[in-house]
Amino acid sequence: MSTDTPGAGPEADKRRIPVFFLSDSTGLTAEAMGNALLVQFPDLKFDRTTIPFISNPEEAHQIVQEIDDLVEAGEGPLVFSTAVDRDIRSQLVECRAPIIDLFETHMEKVENALGVCSSSLRSQLHGVGNMDSYYRRMQAIEFAIEHDDGQSLRALEKADVILVAPSRCGKTPTSMFLALQHGLFVANYPLVDEDFETDHLPRPLKDLGPKLFGLISSPERLAAVREERRQGSRYASLQQVNFELSSARRLFQKNNIPVVDSSAKSVEEMSAIILQRLAHRTHH
C-alpha cells in the first residue's frame, strides 16, 4: 500500500482526493493506467493507495465498505480497478465512489474483435506467465547489474543494447527498465574525460556500433543532479557538465550513434524510443 502526491496549485490546497488502485494481481497496470489519467490534472492533489492481490469476493466487499465510508464522510474518493476475476469485479463495482473499471471497459470490444470470450485468468501480465519469458527477464536483470556503469566488459557482445553517456544521464534506470519489462540484455558504459580526447569510440565499444545508444541531458538538469551527489565539486560544475555534454554529442554524431535526451523524458519514454529504433533497425 503506497501514497504519492504530485505538485498542485493553490486551489488544490483545499483538499486531497483519495485515489484507490485495486487489483486481483500486482496492481501495476491499475497504477500505470490510472496515473496516466491523473497526471492530466496537475493542479489537484491526490492521496494514492494501491491494494493488490484481492483474493476473493469477501475481501473485495470489505474494501468496498472502507471506500464507501470515505464517501459517507464526504472525502470524494476515486477508484481505478483492473480486477480480472468476475466475482471480485462484481463486488468492486458496487462501490459508491466513481469507479473506472479499466478491464471491463475494453474487454467486450476485444472479445468482439477476436470472436472469442476471454479466459479471465489472473496474474498473466505481471506474473510469471510464460516461463521462457520469465527466465529471459531474470537473466536480463543479472546481465544489467553485472554490466552497470562499465563494471564488467565480459561478454559485452551479447548485449542487445549498450547505453553510452556521461555520468548521471539516466543509464542505470533505463537499463533496468528495459531488462525487467522487456527482457533485453542491456549494458551501460560511462563516458569520462579520457574518452573525449579523440572522436573515436572507447576501445571496448569500437566494434559494437549497431548496439549503441547515446544518452544526454541539459546542462542545467545534469548539473543539478550531480550537485545532489557531490555538492560544490568540479564534477557538478556547469563548466564540466557543458564540456562533457558537448563532447558526448560530438562523439555520438561522429560515430552515427542515435541519441535520446533524458532531461525531459521519463524512463518509460526513453525506453519506448529505444525500442522503436531497435525495431526500425531490425526491419531495415
SSE blueprint and pairings:
Blueprint (H helix, E strand, L loop, with lengths): L15 E7 L5 H11 L6 E7 L5 H16 L5 E4 L4 H7 L6 E3 L2 H11 L16 H16 L14 E6 L4 H12 L3 E6 L20 E5 L2 H11 L8 H17 L4 E3 L5 H16 L2
Parallel strand pairs: 1-2, 1-3, 3-4, 5-6, 5-7, 7-8
Helix pairs in contact: 2-3, 5-6, 6-9, 7-8
Structure explained in plain terms:
This protein is of the alpha/beta class and 284 residues long. The protein has helices spanning 28-38, 57-72, 86-92, 104-114, 131-146, 171-182, 219-229, 238-254, 267-282, and strands spanning 16-22, 45-51, 78-81, 99-101, 161-166, 186-191, 212-216, 259-261. The protein has two domains: 10-114, Rossmann fold (3-Layer(aba) Sandwich), CATH 3.40.50; 131-282, Rossmann fold. The protein is built from nine helices and eight strands. A four-stranded parallel beta sheet has the order 2-1-3-4, with helices on one face. Strands 6-5-7-8 form a four-stranded parallel beta sheet, sandwiched between helices. Helix 6 (171-182) links the parallel strand 5 and strand 6 (186-191). The longest helix is centred in the last third of the chain and has 17 residues, at 238-254. It is elongated.
- As a percent range, the share of helical residues equals 40-55%
Order of helices and strands: EHEHEHEHHEHEEHHEH
Strand order of the largest sheet: 2-1-3-4
The profile of the biggest β sheet is: 4 strands, parallel
Alpha carbon gyration radius: 23 Å
Q: Regarding CATH, which class of the largest domain?
A: Alpha Beta
Number of DSSP strand runs: 8
Our count of helices gives 9
Name the CATH architecture of the largest domain: 3-Layer(aba) Sandwich
Low-pLDDT runs = 5-13
> What best-fitting shape do the alpha-carbon axes yield?
elongated
Family: Belongs to the pyruvate, phosphate/water dikinase regulatory protein family. PSRP subfamily.
Catalytic activity: [pyruvate, water dikinase] + ADP = [pyruvate, water dikinase]-phosphate + AMP + H(+); [pyruvate, water dikinase]-phosphate + phosphate + H(+) = [pyruvate, water dikinase] + diphosphate
GO molecular function, one term: ATP binding
Protein name: Putative phosphoenolpyruvate synthase regulatory protein
